[in-house]
């Protein structure tokens, strides 16, 4: 019986692949706001915020576990002054209509927190090659603090989701917006505000809803976001809509009243958030990619602490078809 059980376990591992069960976390040291995509060429492409906030890096590997040892290539650096000269944050790499696009956040050297959304474009088959062209600011319809753009498609319609300060307030509050896209560099029509910080867990130190990420499965669109300060209080919330609903109608979305992913003393992981989603190589399992620290206390401003490391874990599913993110897994290296 023992031999049979061992053989069954080996066969299961072979069928699922090792990354279906666990990853060598943390995947990449000192890389926050991670974005991973598995392209049709069989490579996992990775980008993230670097601690210096001064450039955009790309790397690729055949497995998620290999990303940490993959060569990081700088594909763009901040300007010396003016737009795009400070706080280069949260790059995301997307393949749209045969070209690569990098969506990212940037401020100005003279006003580093006066941040906006920007786009780079590259027609090469491999985004680590070819020429990246600046396509300028992504206009959201009004000028205010804006960051963390992501894009996704449902039933052939592409959407942009992002974070921005509402045009009607001077308060330091950010919400999640959505709009249809007319092209990879422009939205079509007005934006819809989906959520603002309203629960106590979304308003610790700062009133923040930011960093949306979309997961489409089981007939629904799950839109995760991060809330509160970027320390141990950082946590994931989630909005849910039916796949066939009008995603530009706020009433189509249901908001979870509690965090769906948060710090865990049991596993020693704090401030998990700013996630993206990818899949196993066979496409059968969805993966949550996120950053977290392995300690709670941070002296000074948490944005100046470089140790938000990239991590990943398999998503489990509840009987009702909604994702169960569980708790952030322990470091295993």
From TrEMBL:
Keywords: Glycosidase, Hydrolase, Signal. Residues 1-22 form the signal peptide. The keyword Signal applies. InterPro entries: Alpha-L-arabinofuranosidase (IPR016828), Glyco_hydro_43 (IPR006710), Glyco_hydro_beta-prop_sf (IPR023296). GO terms for biological process: carbohydrate metabolic process. The record marks 148 as: Important for catalytic activity, responsible for pKa modulation of the active site Glu and correct orientation of both the proton donor and substrate. GO terms for molecular function: hydrolase activity, hydrolyzing O-glycosyl compounds. It comes from the Bacteria. PANTHER family: GLYCOSYL HYDROLASE, HYDROLASE, FAMILY 43, PUTATIVE (AFU_ORTHOLOGUE AFUA_3G01660)-RELATED. Belongs to the glycosyl hydrolase 43 family. This is Family 43 glycosylhydrolase. It comes from Pseudoduganella buxea.
